[in-house]
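Q: What does the assembled structure look like for these inputs?
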Amino acid sequence: MTTLLMVKNLEVKAGKKTLLAVPLFEIQDGEVLGIMGPNGAGKSTFIKALALLETPAHGAIFLKEKDITNDLTLEMRRKFAVAMQQPLLLDTTVFNNVAVGLKLRKLPRQEVKSKVSAWLEKFQISHLAKKQASTLSGGEAQRVNLARAMVVEPDILFLDEPFSALDFPTKAQLLKDIKSIIKQTDTTTVFVSHDLMELRYLSDTLAILMDGELKQTGPTEEVLSSPNASTAAFINEWKSLLS
Amino acid sequence: MRMKLSLFLVFLIAFIAGCSDSTAKEPEKITPKKTDLILATTTSTQDSGLLDVLRPAFEEKHNFNLKIIAVGTGQALEMGTRGEADVLLVHAPAAEEELVKSGDAINRQKVMYNDFILIGPAGDPAQVKDLSLPEALKKITEIKAAFVSRGDDSGTHKKELELWKKTDIDPKILGKSYIEAGQGMGATLQIASEKNGYTLTDRATFLAQKKNMPETEIMVKGDESLLNIYHVMQVNDEKHDKVNAAGAKAFVQFMIEDDTKKIIKEFGGDKYGEPLFFLFE
Amino acid sequence: MELLLEGLKKAIEMILSGDPEILEITLLTLRVSITAVLVSTLIGIPAGMFLGLARFPGRKLILAIVNIGMGLPPVVAGLWITLFLWRSGPLGELSWLYTPTAIIMAQILVSLPIVTALTSTAFQQINPKLILQVKALGATKLQLFWILMKEVKLAILAAVIAGFGRVIAEVGAAMMVGGNISGETRILTTSIVMEVSKGNFDIALALSFILMTLAFIITFSLTYLQQRKRSL
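A:
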């Protein structure tokens, strides 16, 4: 495995308050990395910084060992895709929603059409192509949202709690589908959640984020079975709830 | 498809509107561009329709683009004092003389006259019909009949105030029956008609409005004090340097020419059976 | 009642006979109003977008001023423009007073705040996370604005319709800065006022029917545009 993304001394501030301070963080190529933490731990802030949507106060970011800290351009941003908790679809058809990322990248029409069709198929929503986004159910909308992210074939896919608003059967089906798609395409994924069940199912590696700091990182099962001093209380509470 | 249709409609309208502009401008390109000449005048000359006849006659003879701004005499005179108009056609002799004295207006010429009349409801509650004007005003105040005043500092308004003053009556004693319209002659007449009130008007505007107010009649006319005299004058270009002096001079000259006099004398005869304006012979 | 029917009859007569004066007045009305709304739209949408999305000191003050501007009485707008365009005023050299340009200026002054304020309200209602999401989809600044504009297109068209309504109905300022000069600055509203003061109620009514028909056609087209089946 090679390191795909690495950050050093990352710090995000809001005014004088430090929201996030991460001395070192790495994502391996093809890895599915889960980030777990209580509300307000800085999970969304972390994703925004990693996906280059927010400029950190300081820190260095390396993509494939290349320092891109001073090169946080659109071109870099376009290597990533983000799906958030709310699907936030545009007021148009499903097809057009999935096509947005490709259209923004000015791909030829024919290519847009074939790629969108392929991804609608993979997420099993081809039959919705002509429907208005505003008429979709929650599960359908989230599938469109994920297809919209995957269609650009990102180097890294960022998932910011995309399943947390769904009911259980819908969530379970979508988790299965996205897992198989991620494995099939070998997509490096950063997956933020506060739900241990989702994380256990999807992530190879688990990072625990608390108070803006990474408290523990390691293979998912290892972290869960042997939490350290800072994470023990949080993890054990989850485990007692699940058992 | 439907969207295209509505878009098309909007653009079509815009296009037509745009074309109207270009076609309107074409003749200007052929003849050299005319200089604008701003005439500030009273609403009575416009509302009677006289200027609609005089404007083409003037523009045919002289190479100016006559812009007629019809406002109250008060505003017209103010435009003169500020040099915002080139030539004035107004009917407030006392105020006009002040303008000449201050040097804002020059070359003031008598053009025409008609008369003011006192009109009122056919029922004539104050019994003023065919009385002399001072007596009529006295009677109106006695029974506190409704009296509608222009109240807009126009020539007619100035005249009305002058008449009250001459009669030695303060119209304010009418209290609520003294209605200050603050509008043009046409609107004031309509208010008078609706309120069964009396009002002072120039004959021309009344004749033009008569068809809309069958219950209103002329009460007092022909009184010496009711003469309504129109003067034309140039705004002094030595005092206001942006004034179109040549055009103003031409217009003053035009207004006292024999051809123009003939137009004025005959104006209104065919429509109202009597002329609206009279000349000084 | 009788007068209403008479007016309607007269309006139809005037339109059918192709009275050149009526045609001229109508076309001028359209030219002036559409130009004013077009300018207000071209300035008001970007300005409204900026006020709606950007955060900078003094923004609330500007928003308040724009909101007050929505209620700016046309005669006040007319008065200000008159003062500027007077021969002795700062823009006197242009000789714009008593020209259609002056009317257009006055109409822009009364419609621009409406378009700007309503547009900015529309943009303020956008979920900030949507902006983030669109950025994450790989949008440039310009692409972001374009996408957001499409998201609020209904509200933007409503802003344009409101602006147009203000402009086509406006009379006080047009009278003051245009002067109601026959063949030059006489538009439908000012000729209605004039015909009323002349006592020609039938003609005034006829003109009012023409005005309302125009307003209806344009507003209907814009509404149709607004309510059409949505597509990207």
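Residues 104 and 118 of chain C are 21 Å apart (CA to CA).
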